[in-house]
Amino acid sequence: MKSLLPLAATLFLSVPGALNAQAVPAEPVFSAAAVRAHVEFLADDLLKGRDTGSEGHEIAARYVASQFDGLGLTPAGDAGGWLQRVTFQKTDPAPERATLTVTGPGGTRSFSHGGDVLIGLSAAEPHLDVAAPLVFVGYGLENRRLGLDDYAGLDVRGKIVVTLRGYPKGMPSEEGAHLSATKAMVAQSHGAIGMLSLGTIQSMKARPWARMVQFADASDFTWVSPDGTPFDQAPGIRAGASLNDPAAEAIFAGAPQGIAAIRKQADRKGGKPRGFALRTSIRIRAESVSQRVTSPNVVAILPGSDTTLKDQYVVLSAHLDHIGISPAKPGDPADKDRINNGALDNGAGVATMLEVARAMAMSPRKPRRSIIFLASTGEEKGLLGADYFARHPAVPIGKIVGNVDLDMPLLLYPFTDIVAFGADHSTLGPIVAKAVAPMGVTLSPDPMPQESIFVRSDHYMFVKQGVPAVFLATGFANGGEQAWGAFLSGNYHHPGDDMNQKIDWDAGARFAEANYRITRAMADGDTPPMWNRGDFFGDLFAPNAAKANK
Ligand SMILES: [Zn+2]
Questions:
Q1: pLDDT for 26 beyond 80
Q2: Which residues sit with Cβ closer than 5 angstroms to ligand 1, an ion?
Q3: CATH class in words for 91-290
Q4: Which of 133, 193, 341, 344 is most buried (CB neighbours < 10 A)?
Q5: What are the tens digits of pLDDT across the range 359-370?
Q6: What CATH number does domain 31-72+303-327+370-542 carry, 3.40.630.10, 3.90.180.10, 1.20.1250.20, 1.10.3660.10?
C-alpha cells in the first residue's frame, strides 16, 4: 500500500497557484532511500549489534558524526568535536556466588544468588558485606499528593527495609512507575542501609521469578561522573536483593502477619499494607569485579535563526547503541546468527533523526530556535547516555525547552497514527497533533498505559531535569497493533531485528516528515513547550517553570 504522501500533495495542489509559489516556502522532500541507507549501515553485521563500549558502536558513532559534518551542523561534543565521551563502570559477579543469610526465630537459613534470592552488585563495594535487622515498609513509597506515607511511625535507621514491588493497584501507572523507581532514595532518606523487594500477586504474573533469574547475571552499568565517582542515585543503600517465596517466608518468621496475607491485602484496589519491624535480620555478602569502559554520545547543533529565540534549544534524540551479540547456548549450531543488529531498535530511530537533520539543514526556512541532535549511548543499559547528557548538557539545561525521543519506530506498516508517550503532561500533546494533521496522521492516546512507557526511554532523563518531553512511536491503527504484537514477541531484542524484516521504507520517509514537522513546530512556536498546570511531573521536576492551562 502506498503512503499518504499523494494525498498531501493533492491538498497542496488545490491551493491557488500564486499563493503556493509565493507564501508557502518549499517543504523538504523526505527520502525512503536515505532512511534505508542509514539503517543498512547501522544494522550491518560488521557493527556487531552496537553494544555500549564496543568497537561496533564506535563505528556507528563515527558514521553519525560524519553525517552531521556533511550537513554543516555545529559539533557540540567534547572539546569542539562531535563526541561526548562517557565513562561507564561495568560491574560483574565474581565466580563465588553471593549469599543472603537470614537469622531469627526460625533459626538460620542461607540462600545463594540465582536460587531463591537475586542479589544486586555494588558498584562502590567489590567485597560487599552488610548485616542488619529488617523492617517491612509496605510498598516503601512516599508522596503527599498521592497520599502515600509508608514510613510513618517506622524506625529504619541503620536497618534493611523490605518492600513490595510496584505500587498500589489502581494508582495512575506513570506516576506509579516513577515513584517505584525512587524507592531506594526514599529508604536512604530515612536512614536505611539496604533494601529487599518481594513480588506481589500482580507483579509475579507480569514478571515471573524464572524470568527474573534469566537476567540476573547481566553486567551492571552506571556512568562515572567527571570526578571519577560511579553514579548511584542512593549510595546509602549499600545492599539490595529480590526474594522468591522460600526466602520471603524465612524473613517473615515470627512476624504478626505473613507474606501471603500481605499479598492478598495488596491485591485489592488501593490496598496499602502497613509496615512493621520484623523479628529477623539478614547478612548479604557479594563479591564483584568492575572495569571501566567508555562510549560516546554524538551531539550536533543547528543554530536557530531568530536573534532572541536561538538561545533556546529543542533536542531531537535517538539511541544509537543496541545489545551486541547474544552469548552462545549449548547445542547451538556453529553458524547460528547471534548478532542483534537492532535495525528497528534503534537503527530506524537514528535514521529518522538523520533524515530530519538533513531536511532541517537544507530548508531555506531555518528554525527559529536552535536544535540539538543527540545520538545517545547506553540506552539499553538503563538510559545512561541520555542521563549523562541531561546532567552534563552541551548548553545549560535551563535553555533546553523540549525533547522528542525516537526509539524503535516500527516501520513495518503504512502507519496512519502516531503515539506520543507523555503527550498528556505538557503542551507537546497539542503541538504534536497539530504538526502532523496536514499529513493526514492523527495523534492517538497511549495504547498501553499499563507499560508506563513514558518513564522508560531516554526522553525521561530530560523530564527528570524539568524539560517537557515525549517519546514518539508509530501507532496501532492500520495494522499497527498486529505489527507491534508480532515484533515484541518475535524480533524485539533478538537477532531477527535485522534487514531481513519487511521494512516499509516509505513509512520511514513519512515518519521522518512527521518528526520534522513536530521538531519545527517546537522550534518555531512563539512560546516554548510548557508543562500543563497541575501536572504531577511538571510540578515535581519544574516547580518554578511557567505552566500552561490545559
Ligand atoms: Zn532496545
A1: no
A2: 345
A3: alpha beta
A4: 341
A5: 999 999 999 999
A6: 3.40.630.10
